[in-house]
Specification:
Elements: H1 9-24, E1 29-34, E2 42-47, H2 61-69, H3 77-86, H4 102-113, E3 123-126, H5 130-144, E4 151-154, H6 160-169, E5 173-176, H7 178-186
Parallel strand pairs: 3-5, 4-5
Antiparallel strand pairs: 1-2
Helix pairs in contact: 3-4, 4-5
Length: 191
């Protein structure tokens, strides 16, 4: 990959940076426009080999079985691009339309990177609404059946007693709304 000959130094640095990432990453998919000052936008696209099965993502046999049990036959593009990067421990910022598998992408990453059973939460997923917290917790719960991670959802509009009991019983992953998470921390049920 090389930038257009008329590209400014800023563009050349951006091309160099993204080309280096693409060269090191066999599952990189990227498209973005860059704009520096009043220059016209520069579109950068890299399309590399994308994993076509869950086993190629490196998530482990248990999670591959969980995906099959849920009826998922192959990873979506966002999953194929984000999961391999996430399980290496690098930060991932992914954006995709609704229904493209973003929740599955970070759920697979979290479940592949954490060990079940410490009795205290090792993962906290914050969701802006209780509906989204409920959706995320259901998907994580379904995927975690094979890995034995314990998932607890905490959000407003549900009784404190049930949520406090589940937290006290021990869990690995907490999915909640900010207000209820703060409440549980103030009550010293969640630390």
């Amino acid at each position: 990959l090389s930038p257009p000959s008329a590209a400014s130094d800023v563009y050349k640095r951006q091309w160099s940076f993204l080309s280096a990432i693409a060269a090191r990453t066999p599952y990189f998919l990227y498209r973005r426009q860059f704009r520096a000052g009043s220059c016209r936008p520069l579109t950068f696209s890299v399309r590399r080999f994308i994993m076509t099965s869950f086993s190629e993502l490196g998530i482990g046999k248990n999670l591959c079985e969980a995906a099959a049990r849920m009826g998922w036959t192959e990873p979506t593009p966002i999953q194929a691009a984000a999961i391999p990067v996430g399980i290496t421990g690098r930060d991932v910022l992914a954006q995709a339309q609704t229904g493209t598998g973003k929740t599955g992408a970070f759920a697979f990453t979290v479940l592949a990177r954490t060990r079940p059973g410490p009795g205290v939460p090792t993962v906290l997923v914050l969701s802006p609404t209780r509906e989204l917290a409920d959706q995320v917790s259901h998907e994580m719960y379904a995927l975690s059946k094979e890995t034995r991670h314990r998932v607890v959802a905490i959000y407003g509009g549900a009784p404190y007693s049930d949520q406090m009991r589940r937290l006290s019983a021990g869990c690995d992953i907490v999915v909640g709304t900010p207000g209820r998470v703060i409440d549980m921390c103030e009550r010293e049920v969640l630390d």
